[in-house]
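Box 3.1. Reading complex inputs
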Amino acid sequence: MSNSMSQPPTPAPTSEALVRLLQIKLLFWGPGEAGKTTTYYRLQEIFQRFQVSEGFSIATTDERTLWNDSVHFRFPMIPSKLDVVVNVATTTGQERFLSTREYILQNADGVVFVGDSSWGKIEENLRSFEELLHFTKRSATPIVIQLNKRDLPDAIALTDFLNEMDLPDNNQGTAGTQVVYETIASSLLPKEKHTIQRLFIGLLETVVRRNMVNTRRKFQTKQNTGGVK
Amino acid sequence: MATIPDQLRSNAVATLLDELRVKYGKLSRTGKLYGLIVADQDAKVLAANTFFHHKLNYWDVGAIGAALYGVGKQARDFFQAQDLDRATLIFGDFMFFTHIIGTVSLGENPNQTRELILISIGERNINLGLVVMLMQKFAPRILHQVEHDEKARNQMRMSESEFTHHLEDLKKQLFSLTESSIGGII
């Protein structure tokens, strides 16, 4: 008792410490059986040491996502002294649960659209992508595309996929960022894992940057209007 | 116009659901039961009561019920609790229950089992105790019925793609007018 009394009290978290925590939600969206949940599990392997929640999957006995999968990571970003907590979630791809997807998408800061490489799934890819664009039109949420299952024998060529999906021919977005990443989420090869890692970090950087710009803008507006002293 | 295929609202399990609803009506003077559904843990709807509320989508009700069951199971693992009995959602004007009925074996393989859930949705002022009591009372009868219904068991055995085709057939039953004298919409 006396020992604990003699120790200096632990300082309460300052408002600055709270400001330096950024919470982000990244979502995986796409048609059924495209590889959203597989990528989700692969991310848990890649970023295992940053995982801060056990994560959950609400799925059917066939391992098809019924509601969603969700897990949290905490990434310390040294240069900016910022801790980023990322909630990674997936939606269901099954047509019979489509009505639930809109709710999972709410408040997402960034979306990975997981497309299926099979030629036979191009219609489903298109329909799902258009649905996503419709839902995110107002918020202008950043989207990257993961073209999965590149090992399929009838895999669509990247140029054909870009054409079919009406994406830029040079596979570059307005900010010069890569739009489509070709992956094999089921593969355990380091090269494949690295592509998923690159895709995830690329989107995360875009979202963090966007968030910081928005926060700074809001802060400046408050300062100008006399809200902050 | 019918909103639920005959296959789901006129089978033996649906008859039990109708009986449950009538019993509730006789015993309680408050609150309406809008609908009753029996589904498996994968949200495959096996039966719905005859007077299922026409403004509710029985398929969405089944999906929410199964998702609620999934959340309950996940929570059970987190808390290391015993088996899930029932999950309830209470809204300003609705009450929604997912009651676990029991497990059905689908084959010789002991791992091939499915849990059955009874979903009920009603007005906010329904007699909660009575609904719970009736669900508990009817659960063994429903379970027994499903265990002896080969059609229902086949439905639970279906893979996701087989089930999608099955749903398309059910939809055709509701919306196709091809064989009618006035022509068709399909």
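In summary: The radius of gyration of chain A is 20 Å.
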